[in-house]
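Reagents: none. Just compute today. PTS system mannose-specific IIBCA component.
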Amino acid sequence: MAQKVLAITSCAVGVAHTYMAAENLEQAAEAMDVEIKVETHGSIGVENPLTDEDIQEAEGLIIAADTEISKERFSNIQIVEVGVQKGIQRPKELIQQILEHQGTTRSTSYESKQTEENKSSRESKNPIYQALMNGVSFMVPFVVTGGLLIAIALTIGGVPTDGGLVIEEGTIWDSINNIGEAAMGFMVPILAAYMAYSIADRPGLVPGMIGGLIASSEDFYADEGDTGFLGGIIAGLLAGYIALAIKKIPVPKAVQSVMPIIFIPIISTLIVGLIFIYIIGTPVASLFTGLTNWLESLQGTSSIVLAIIVGTMIAVDMGGPFNKVAVFIRRRFNW
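Predicted 3D structure written out:
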């Protein structure tokens, strides 16, 4: 009877790396004649959950995750815990560690050790990068939904012209395109909102969302256009850290209960909004417009250079923030 190993995979975005690690572990187990069951924690939720029977039968558990995974279920089983990248790159090595009983069984000392390791890990990770990845993970479904609806409308309802495909006004395809554009319009506000949420929890959500909306609106910056993806990142960080700072201010007990739902969101939103409108919004919009114009200028004679830039951004961190910026650039120019 083949030995049985369990695994849990999860990445910050919950799209690419989660399933790549699961697939590589399954392929490695098959090559080693080992039975494996992989529970994935993706953007869709938990899939292929591990049962009590699985846990009793298994030699051990591999956790290849960049997110927090509860270990309460695994009190009498050895665990090897690594980042999701190791699950992708070294699946055979991880399985071998379980078979050779190199994992750690949960106990009081284990819990203490893991608490210290998790604390150290959280402190060593860049909080700005973590916030950005959290924002990106919530932004992706809006980009995918909006982008696909626009693509469907253009592919089926688009009429070829010298300037490319054009959708006739008043048609069903025009309506589908408008729905897609509406979904894409949430991209920057959602990014900013959940970046702020990652930093300050719930009190950061409202100022992040409104800050992102201001960042993505052309109405606030005269003829400079909007601040785009760059402005959304700045708005999310501003909203998050301003809300976090206000949370730490000592207040009378009588108003503590309403601070997160009234005072913190209102004050944070005012500060972020006014900073964008009167101080940094126009310069950031000018910078973003200049960057956009430069990229547009590369579409003609320097299209190879543009392809290299966007291709590098896609490949340098699959599923990460640079990858998503490349998607935003593609959408900006309607490629």
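Residues 4-124 form a domain with the Rossmann fold fold (CATH 3.40.50.2300).
Action item: order primers for follow-up constructs.
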